Amino acid sequence: MQGSDIPPAAPISSARIWLRRLPILVILAAAVLGAIAFRDTLSFETLARHRDDLLAFRDAHYLWAVLGFLAAYVTIVAFSLPGGTIATLAGGFLFGLFPGVLYNVAGAGTGAVLVFLAARSGFGDALAQKLQAAGGKAAKLQAALRQNEWSVLFLMRLVPLVPFFIANLIPAFVGTSLTRFAVSTFIGIIPGALVFTSVGSGLGEVFARGEAPDLGIIFTPPVLFPLLGLAALAALPMVMRALKGGR
């Protein structure tokens, strides 16, 4: 009777840990498989080939077209499948600059939040606690990131240098709150979404000419300079805090 009726705690604890890790492990596995299986499927050529069918479906079933587009975009982002840029162009092509940009932001932002939650539940909380408990340079870096959290979060979204998937994982690993991550994500991706949705809204003429869209437009001065200006504005509190602290 001495403890015979009490189930061992270790297996239950281990099972719960792996259950929490399951979503992010599924996402990582899907990302690898998707990169192989859908590498050439979700492309501009595919969009051009099916443009008439997509427009016909949108005209006949607008609500279902919107819901289907949102579901597809969230899936692409959540599982880090190739074709995120094509999905953004499709949003502009099917729904115009407005409300297309709203659908693009909603799809990308929701997918990013799902990745963040999966990463934080699976590894992020434990890793953040370990970094804090370990002390040293890792803990100082974590503290610096948290002190400048808003600036860093917005910079990762505004400056197109950090891959979107990585920008979803880093905040989860340093203990960022869901509210801050969601707000900075949904607001921070608006400028880039506006640019690519605008390009997508003009795809009808591009298709008619048999050409491909110029996605390098984001690096042209009229687009890049305003983005860098927003990035500088986002970094200003961090710079001022550093100067004030004498770092």
Structure description:
- The chain starts with 8 loop residues before the first helix and ends with a helix.
- 81% of the residues lie in helices and 0% in strands.
- The chain has one domain.
- α6 (97-134) packs parallel to α9 (164-173).
- It has 247 residues and is an all-alpha fold.
- It is built from 13 helices and no strands.
- The chain is globular.
- The model is unreliable at 1-12 (pLDDT under 50).
Secondary-structure topology with pairs:
Elements: H1 9-37, H2 44-49, H3 51-60, H4 62-78, H5 84-95, H6 97-134, H7 136-147, H8 149-158, H9 164-173, H10 178-188, H11 190-201, H12 203-209, H13 221-245
Helix pairs in contact: 1-6, 3-4, 4-5, 4-6, 5-6, 5-11, 6-7, 6-9, 6-10, 6-11, 8-10, 8-13
Summarize the structure.
By secondary structure, the protein is mostly helical.
Cα distance spanning the termini = 63 Å
Q: What is the 3D shape?
A: globular
Helix % is: over 70%
What is the number of domains? 1
How large a portion of the residues is in β-strands, by DSSP E? under 5%
Low-confidence stretches: 1-12
| Strand runs, count | 0
Cα-based radius of gyration, to the nearest Å: 22 Å
The whole-number mean of residue pLDDT values reads: 80
Order of helices and strands: HHHHHHHHHHHHH
Helix-strand makeup class: mainly alpha
Task: Provide a count of the helices.
Answer: 13
Instruction: Outline the biggest β-sheet.
Output: none
Summary tags:
mainly alpha; 81% helix; single chain; disordered N terminus; 13 helices; 247 residues
